[in-house]
Structures are given as C-alpha cells and as structure tokens.
C-alpha cells in the first residue's frame, strides 16, 4: 500500500492481531512507531480506538468504525490501482472499430482526432465494411465495437446509442426538390436518377418504393459506393437517392440539399453504436466509445440537417 496509508497499515494490523508487538514483527517496523501513529490519531479524533487490556488490544466501537473504513479504503485503492494500470496501458492501447461507408467522413474521424489529442497513446484501427460485415466483426470479437443499421434482431449485440436516419433525394442547391423539406417518391418521375446498388443497406427500401408505386425509374447511373453517388450528383448527373446520413457533410457545407421521401410505407432506419454483449470493452475502447456516443445524436436526420437550415436562414 502507498506511503500515505501508513496509519491504516499500522492500525489494521494491530486491530487484526490484537498486539502492537505482533504488528511490529509482521510489518517489520518498530513498536514505538506504531504506537505513536495510533496515539496521534486517537488524540486528533478525541476518542480511543483500542481498549488496553492485560491480554492485548481490543477495538472499541470507534475502532470498529475505523476498521470498516480501512477495509473500504483498501478495496477502493485496489480499484484505483487497476484504473491507473489501465492509464499506463494507454501508451500501448489499441482500439478496433468497424463502420459502414457513410461514416468514413464527418463525426467519426472528428471523434477519433479528438480522443487522440487528449490521449495520444491510443491508436485506432477503422474497418469500413458492409452493414452485415460490421455486425459479424463485432460479434466475432474482431473489433471492439461497430456502427451499423438495424441491429435490433441480433441478441449478441448491445446497443450503446442509436439514432434514426431517413431516405431522401439528394440534389444540387437550386434544384426544385431542394426547396422542399419532403416529397413523395413519385416526385422523381421522369428525372435521371443515381441509385445505390447492393450491398448498400438502402437498396431494399428503394426496391419496395419502386414496386409499390409501379414507377419505372430512369436510372442514369448506379453504384455500390456512397462517395461515387455523391460525386455524380455534385457533377450534375442527376438526382441521388441516399439516406440523410450519407450526405451530412455535403449538406452542412451547403454543397448539396436533402429532401426526405415522405411515402407512408417508409420507416426510418435505425443506426446504432454496438458492442459485443459477451465482452466488456477495454478502458481505451471505453474512452473512444464515450467520445463517439457523446456526439452520436448529430448523426440523426434532425441533427444532421440542423446546420444546413441555420446556414440557409
């Protein structure tokens, strides 16, 4: 135990052994040093901690309270030591995460930079994967945590935070759709479209919309890469169909506009920060998780569009 706990070391040994001499032998210190420490504290608190009996020392009621406090202090010190050891380990700490493609810009890189500026010993590995591959990486223990769509059906995942994102039209500012907060899917009839391809998670929602509306989409281009779809919209190739999450950075910068598709059959998609239910994150992983969790709300449809609305005001 640390040097500043000298009194408790002496007191607890005497309380346990019932003898200053026996405590001195066990601790390898002089009996007078132990007696002096105990007398000083008794004088300070104004009450004896021991009954002095011919057979030895016995704890008084105050001594029992002090002994219980000492036991609690000892347990707390063990916990503190463990946390300090974790902090020392941060010099070699490494955290692995898996994210979907849409998160490769914006909040996640910013959160990583923030945590590394405060804890430069943490290194971070980021795997950008398809939605199902993110889930598999988390459940297999390949990564410490992941961010993915629709985790509710998986019992082996624990959700730390979640937000809702929505499907919408992505256009250049000045396009007629850019003036609308929301529009029905039929609003894109006759317009050239740039649509997601498998394995992007939104493909199923678009297929449902197409099937129920009976529309025949004018597919100008398709891609399985969100950045490619975004770039094609920026180049003026057509209207993109993506989630609010996919274009947060561009919308907030005023480069693109997002119009929610309002058809009643569409439901918001759940984006979740998940860990493996069977594992406890390391201290370093916990720090990174907390940083991401604190700003997770800004990934929601409301949070992601807020800055664009302020800039337009």
TrEMBL record:
Superkingdom of source: Bacteria
InterPro entries from the xrefs? HTH-type_LysR_regulators, LysR_HTH_N, LysR_subst-bd, WH-like_DNA-bd_sf, WH_DNA-bd_sf
Supply the alphabetized keyword list: DNA-binding, Transcription, Transcription regulation
SUPFAM superfamilies listed in its UniProt record: Periplasmic binding protein-like II, Winged helix' DNA-binding domain
Listed Pfam families: HTH_1, LysR_substrate
Query: Where would I find the HTH lysR-type domain in this sequence?
Result: 8-60
Q: Which PANTHER family match?
A: HTH-TYPE TRANSCRIPTIONAL REGULATOR YBHD, NITROGEN ASSIMILATION TRANSCRIPTIONAL ACTIVATOR-RELATED
Similarity remark: Belongs to the LysR transcriptional regulatory family.
Q: What is the name listed in the Swiss-Prot or TrEMBL entry for this protein? A: LysR family transcriptional regulator
């Amino acid at each position: 135990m640390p040097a500043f706990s000298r009194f408790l070391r002496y007191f607890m040994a005497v309380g346990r052994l019932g003898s200053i001499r026996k405590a001195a032998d066990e601790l390898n210190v002089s009996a007078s040093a132990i007696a002096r420490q105990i007398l000083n504290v008794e004088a300070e608190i104004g009450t004896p901690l021991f009954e002095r009996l011919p057979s030895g020392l016995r704890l008084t009621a105050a001594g029992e309270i002090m002994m219980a406090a000492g036991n609690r202090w000892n347990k707390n010190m063990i916990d503190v030591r463990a946390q300090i050891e974790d902090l020392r380990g941060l010099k070699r700490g490494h955290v692995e995460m898996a994210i979907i493609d849409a998160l490769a810009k914006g909040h996640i890189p910013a959160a990583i930079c923030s945590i590394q500026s405060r804890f430069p010993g943490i290194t971070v590995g980021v795997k950008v994967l398809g939605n199902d591959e993110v889930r598999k990486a988390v459940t297999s223990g390949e990564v410490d945590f992941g961010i993915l769509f629709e985790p509710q059906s998986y019992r082996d995942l624990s959700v730390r935070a979640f937000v809702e994102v929505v499907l919408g039209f992505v256009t250049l500012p000045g396009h007629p759709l850019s003036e609308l907060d929301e529009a029905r899917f039929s609003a894109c009839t006759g317009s050239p479209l740039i649509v997601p391809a498998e394995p992007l998670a939104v493909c199923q929602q678009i297929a449902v919309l197409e099937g129920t509306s009976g529309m025949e989409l004018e597919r100008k281009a398709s891609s399985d890469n969100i950045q490619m779809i975004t770039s094609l919209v920026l180049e003026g190739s057509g209207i993109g169909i993506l989630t609010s999450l996919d274009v947060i950075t561009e919308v907030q910068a005023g480069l693109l506009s997002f119009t929610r598709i309002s058809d009643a059959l569409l439901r918001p998609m759940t984006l979740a920060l998940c860990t493996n239910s069977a594992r406890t994150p390391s201290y370093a992983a916990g720090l990174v998780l907390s940083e991401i969790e604190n700003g997770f709300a800004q990934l929601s449809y409301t949070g992601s569009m807020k800055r664009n609305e302020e800039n337009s005001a």
